[in-house]
What we know:
5-stranded mixed sheet
Amino acid sequence: MNELQDLIDNNERWAEAIKQEDPDFFSKLARQQTPEYLWIGCSDARVPANEIVGMLPGDLFVHRNVANVVLHTDLNCLSVIQYAVDVLKVKHILVTGHYGCGGVRASMQDRQLGLIDGWLRSIRDLYYEHREVLGQLATEEERVDRLCELNVIQQVANVGHTSIVQNAWHRGQSLSIHGCIYGIKDGRWKSLNATISGFEQLPPQYRLMVAFRL
Length: 214
């Protein structure tokens, strides 16, 4: 028996249900991709981007990695952002973390995990930066959850610091970056009120002028 048969059967039922609701859905979907949102989220299997915000395929452009990190050296993530902003012309970038994130928790511990230790280094730095405030929280779960929020806020800033986003603003393109978080225990997705929509919200040292061209 095909080891993927259960998934194939699930897909057949899903596709049929979509067609029953809208017979032209897939033909319309194949003709164009025009999402207004880019989702940058965690790879955690319990955080399904489209389902959380009630969107169908085609409504959300998605990038996921461990602990929803945006690094200036990550060409994969930056390529996704550039395609979303420059080609798809998305209007909103949704940086979404989740409470109880395993990557964030690992960044607070002293165990070696392998290659991922380097990936999580920026969150470890964030933990060190906020160690005194986090240390005042009563439980480990509270500390993990607060660092999950702080990590999202930091990644929103990292997105805003990219030349990709700032060049869009230079062009007059409408683009906002939002920090959000998802609760696996209750299924609720909420804003952290950490939105950046223009240069004036960036510290001066991160504002990039347009490159001079001859």
